[in-house]
């Protein structure tokens, strides 16, 4: 596990997403997660959608299911689950800006519903969901064991967990730890990044069975040169970008540079990406 050398509070994480709200949506769109390029010919939109479908396959959704989306962002995946799979969905996020946007584009309102709630201190009832999905939120959790234990608790027997996550490589060189993965944690407001084997073990320890891991590290890396390019184009074309990056009160502006670090970390194998699936036995 690689840990941030600076403490990161839940308020820091919420502020990261609120401050970068426009950046995230303008540069990447309402899905705040990687894309998956399998043929190399996909558009970014197709690649982003492929990642969602790979996660949802592991949730084995059926109409009428109760689904919880932990770390729902702008709710784009929650809306796919509600509208294309006929499920009742609740999305949790810690960012008020994300809830405001998600509610403004949910038509008719009511499904999905969105809530500002910290998963580490959630109020969900035990045994109340058929599936828990979580795309790129585990990184932000202070206690990874608790993340999985809570998912196990709120699932009904037979329910499934499907999670995608940024990962640390299994064996880092000291410089990769120091100059790539730890700064990515600190600058991205990620308290810690575990490895694929650590998370698979934590899922089993929480009680999950049929635990599976899909390594997509090679297929997601193209996300970062595209983001970096779009940001550079934005800097040239939109004066607001430069103003934002030069304003010291935007303490999350460093993330514009973190993108290049993440790209390099993937290329070195110091960062990885995976989708995890598991079932709570009946
Ligand atoms: C990278 S975004 C992913 C958003 C969304 N899943 C998507 O794919 O578009 C991470 C999300 O995790 C949420 N998050 C971070 N820590 C959280 C916590 N402790 N409880 C609930 N949500 C959290 C953030 O608010 C944000 O919505």
Describe the structure.
This protein is α/β, with parallel strands linked by helices. The protein has a single domain, classed as Rossmann fold. The protein is built from twelve helices and nine strands. It has helices at 10-19, 21-27, 44-59, 76-85, 96-104, 144-154, 174-187, 196-206, 217-220, 223-237, 239-246, 255-268; strands at residues 2-3, 66-70, 88-93, 113-116, 129-135, 155-168, 192-193, 209-215, 271-279. The chain has a seven-stranded mixed β-sheet with strand order 4-3-2-5-6-9-8, sandwiched between helices. β2, α4 (76-85) and β3 (88-93) form a beta-alpha-beta unit. α10 crosses α11 (239-246). The longest helix is centred in the first third of the chain and has 16 residues, at 44-59. The structure holds S-adenosylmethionine. Residues 10, 13, 17, 31-33, 70-73, 76-77, 92-95, 98, 118-120, 135-137, 140-141 line the site of S-adenosylmethionine (SAM). S-adenosylmethionine binds at residues 10, 13, 17, 31-33, 70-73, 76-77, 92-95, 98, 118-120, 135-137, 140-141.
Fold blueprint:
Blueprint: E1 2-3, H1 10-19, H2 21-27, H3 44-59, E2 66-70, H4 76-85, E3 88-93, H5 96-104, E4 113-116, E5 129-135, H6 144-154, E6 155-168, H7 174-187, E7 192-193, H8 196-206, E8 209-215, H9 217-220, H10 223-237, H11 239-246, H12 255-268, E9 271-279
Parallel strand pairs: 2-3, 2-5, 3-4, 5-6
Antiparallel strand pairs: 1-7, 6-9, 8-9
Helix pairs in contact: 6-8, 7-12, 10-11, 10-12
The structure holds S-adenosylmethionine.
What percent of residues are in strands?
15-25%
First-to-last CA distance: 31 Å
Helix content: 40-55%
Radius of gyration of CA atoms, rounded to a whole number = 18 Å
* Biggest sheet details: 7 strands, mixed
Strand numbers in spatial order across the main sheet: 4-3-2-5-6-9-8
How many helices?
Answer: 12
- For the record, the count of structural domains works out to 1
Helix/strand order, N-terminal first: EHHHEHEHEEHEHEHEHHHHE
Global shape: globular
What CATH architecture label applies?
3-Layer(aba) Sandwich
Ligand list: S-adenosylmethionine
* Topology-level CATH name: Rossmann fold
Look at the structure and name the CATH superfamily.
Vaccinia Virus protein VP39
Catalogue the unreliable spans. none
**Which secondary-structure class do the elements indicate?**
alpha/beta
Structure summary, number of beta strands? 9
CATH class: Alpha Beta
Average pLDDT reading:
96
């Amino acid at each position: 596990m690689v840990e941030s050398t600076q403490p990161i509070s839940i308020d820091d994480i919420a502020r990261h997403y609120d401050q970068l709200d426009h950046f995230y949506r303008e540069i990447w769109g309402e899905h705040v997660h990687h894309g998956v390029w399998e043929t190399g010919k996909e558009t970014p939109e197709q690649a982003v959608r492929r990642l969602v479908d790979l996660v949802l396959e592991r949730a084995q959704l059926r109409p009428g299911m109760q689904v919880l989306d932990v770390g729902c962002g702008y709710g784009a995946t929650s809306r796919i689950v509600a509208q294309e799979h006929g499920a009742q969905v609740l999305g949790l996020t810690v960012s008020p800006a994300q809830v405001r946007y998600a509610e403004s584009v949910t038509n008719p309102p009511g499904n999905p519903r969105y809530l500002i709630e910290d998963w580490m201190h959630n109020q969900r009832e035990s045994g109340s969901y058929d599936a828990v999905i979580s795309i790129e939120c585990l990184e932000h959790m202070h206690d990874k064991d608790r993340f999985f234990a809570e998912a196990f608790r709120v699932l009904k027997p037979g329910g499934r967990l499907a999670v995608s996550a940024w990962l640390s490589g299994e064996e880092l060189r000291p410089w990769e730890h120091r100059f790539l993965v730890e700064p990515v944690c600190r600058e991205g407001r990620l308290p810690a990044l575990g490895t694929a084997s650590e998370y698979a073990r934590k899922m089993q320890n929480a009680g999950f069975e049929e635990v599976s891991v899909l390594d997509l590290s090679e297929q997601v890396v193209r996300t970062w040169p595209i983001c970096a390019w779009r940001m550079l184009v934005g800097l040239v074309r939109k004066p607001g970008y430069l103003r934002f990056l030069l304003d010291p009160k935007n303490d999350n502006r460093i993330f514009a540079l973190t993108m290049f670090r993440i790209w390099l970390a993937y290329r070195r194998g110091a960062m990885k990406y995976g989708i995890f699936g598991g079932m709570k036995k009946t």
